[in-house]
Every structure is written in C-alpha cells, then in structure tokens.
Amino acid sequence: MGQPIIEVRNVTMAYGRLKAVDNVSFDIEANEFFALLGPSGCGKTTLLRIIAGFVSPTSGQVFIDGQDMGRIPPNRRPVNMVFQSYAVFPHMSVEKNVAYGLQVTGTPAAEAARRVGDALERVGLSDLRTRMPDQLSGGQRQRVALARALVKQPKVLLLDEPLSALDAKLREQMQMELSHLQADIGVTFIIVTHDQDEALSMADRIAVMNNGAVDQIAEPWVLYESPANRFVADFIGKVNLIDGEVSGARGGRVTVATAALGKVSIPHDGPASGRVALAVRPEKIRISTSKPGDRDAIATTGTIADWAYYGDSSHLTVETGDGHRLGVIIQNDTRTTIDAMDIGDAVHLSWSASDTLVLDR
C-alpha cells in the first residue's frame, strides 16, 4: 500500500455548540471507491464539502496526494464534484456542457476536443453530443454531469447523492454503471449517500457516520456480518435487536439473559458486560409450524403478525409471547410448509447461536 490519496486528520466542523463533523480521521487509497454513508444530518455532506474545499473545517487537516489542502481553494484542488441536482446547463448541448470547464481554464481547442470525445465515449453519450439537456432522460443527464467532471482529469471524483433524483430501476442501473466506470478509469470515487443498498453495491469500503462521527469503516460484507455497534447493525440492512444483560462469560462464550428468549449462550470474542443487544439478521431465522429438532439452536415461538410479498422473497413479522417482534425473511423459491401459514398462525422460530452478535454499544 502506498501513500493514501486522501488523508483526513482530526477534522471537526462546529457551528457554535453543534458539531456537524466531530474529530474524524481516515485514509482513502488511490483508485478506491469509498462511500460516506449515514442518515440525514450525520455530517457526511459537510465532510465531502470540506474535502472539496467549499467549507473550511473548524480544526483538523485534509491532505490530497500528500499535500495539505488548508490554503488551497476549491478550483485548485485535484478533485471534481458531481452534485445531486446534476447542475447541467440547460442552454448548452451535451458536448458544450462537457467542454465548458476546459474552455474556462484555457485548454487548447484540439486538446479539449480530444478529451471531450474521450469523456463522452466513457459514459456512453458519443451519439448524443448535439442534444440539449431537455431532450435527455434523467440517467443521461447524470452521465453528462459525470463526463463534465471526468473531462478535467481529477485525481478524486466527489459524488454528493448523485442518484437520488432517479427512479428505483434507473438508480439500480446507474449503480452498476458507476461501479464499472470507476473500475475502468481508475479514479478515486468518494460518494455520499443515505442509501445503504447503494453503498453496499458500489463501494470498496464504507464509512458509516452517526452524529458527526465515524462509527465504523470496513468492506461492505464486514459491515453487514460484523457491525461494530448497535447503530451500524440497525442501519446496514435489516436486523433484529433483542435487549439483554450479560450474566456470565466463559470459554469464548457469553450468557445473556433476555425477556424474549430467556438465557442464551452466544459465541463471543472479547469482553462483554452489562446491558447488551443481541443482533440476528432476519434471513438467518428459520420458521416452521413444528418444533425445531436442533437442540443447540436458539428458539422461540410466536404468532405471525404481518406478511409482505416482494417477489423473490417474503418478509414476515412474528410477535412472541412477551410482545417482542422479530422479522423473518424467506426466499420464495424455497417455500415449502410455510405456504400453509397465514397471519395469526402460531409458528416456531430458530437460528444458530453462531449467527447471533453481541453488541455492547
């Protein structure tokens, strides 16, 4: 691993007593697709704007390619930004939109024409170069914005919720296109999004932000399978969280007393004490009309309270005797005895203790 392309060091952005970004530090490698993920108001867009130079942090430093950006204005940083609104000029053709930044900086005409042609080809718009923005679809306007950013040959491309204005099907298509584009051109991408599926499907690594701080940075599968705390587990995908209290620990396992499940023994590395949450993903839970035969499984009973059909899968909510609700996801192509189930039916739930996480934060 060489020197990171982006180094964020102890960056804080305070507005009076409110800290929009709170002492954040991380590195981003060259050619990495990196996501800043979190709910509205968590500080992710503010942090992106600090990297871009649009906002100066209250304290801390940002280095790009080894250079301190503290005194470098936005137009002199080796980055370019694609905004949520695309900001495509409505009175200019596709080609002129993409060429605009090069004209402003005085790039020779022949060089500009070559770079515009390359950028349009990369985003699949070569055949639409003469069209006006009002003749383009939402996805095509997004590609114009991308080409305009890429034509300046930045070392880092910053994307602020770039797909949020698109409908669901087009958004999914553009996620794949962005991922392939980033891999092809080898430019570092940093995307801000509140959409977990968007981040999981595109990013090499994801920083999950909460209340101005970074709770965890990891590869998508690590965030999903091994979240660092309750917030990350709840924000990344669907999860069942069961409150409990540690009553003992021995031999790489902890015993947790819960109202919903009684006392359960869970494999757990590291310390755990006091109040905790047990986390289990809904697709890990087995559902049946008969009592499970696996004595080592965690098991409970309940009544089906809700059932939603999603084509390839169904999402069920089962209410246990103490009023706790557990989500269960089943794949519809593997449905067997559950075809006979309906809302109000009594069922058995079970899952492996090894599929259960103990979260103490």
Comma- or semicolon-separated keywords:
2 domains; 36% strand; five-stranded antiparallel β-sheet; 361 residues; 8 helices; alpha+beta; Rossmann fold; OB fold (Dihydrolipoamide Acetyltransferase, E2P); six-stranded mixed β-sheet; globular
Written account of the structure:
The chain has 361 residues and is an alpha+beta fold. It folds into 2 domains: 6-233, P-loop containing nucleotide triphosphate hydrolases (Rossmann fold, 3-Layer(aba) Sandwich); 238-359, RNA polymerase II/Efflux pump adaptor protein, barrel-sandwich hybrid domain (OB fold (Dihydrolipoamide Acetyltransferase, E2P), Beta Barrel), CATH 2.40.50. 23% of the residues lie in helices and 36% in strands. The chain contains 8 helices and 20 strands. The strands form 4 sheets. A 6-stranded mixed beta sheet has the order 6-7-8-3-9-10, sandwiched between helices. A 5-stranded antiparallel beta sheet has the order 13-12-11-14-20. Strand 1 and strand 2 (18-28) form a beta hairpin. The longest helix is centred in the middle third of the chain and has 18 residues, at 168-185. It is globular, with a radius of gyration of 25 Å. The relative contact order is 0.11. The model has no long low-confidence stretch (mean pLDDT 90).
Give the topology, please.
Blueprint (H helix, E strand, L loop, with lengths): L5 E10 L2 E11 L4 E5 L6 H9 L6 E6 L2 E2 L10 E4 L11 H11 L4 H14 L15 H13 L5 E5 L7 H18 L2 E6 L2 H7 L2 E6 L2 E6 L1 H6 L4 H6 L4 E11 L2 E6 L3 E6 L7 E6 L5 E3 L9 E12 L3 E8 L4 E7 L14 E6 L5 E3 L2
Parallel strand pairs: 3-8, 3-9, 6-7, 7-8
Antiparallel strand pairs: 1-2, 1-4, 4-5, 9-10, 11-12, 11-14, 12-13, 14-20, 15-19, 16-17, 16-19, 17-18
Helix pairs in contact: 2-3, 2-4, 3-4
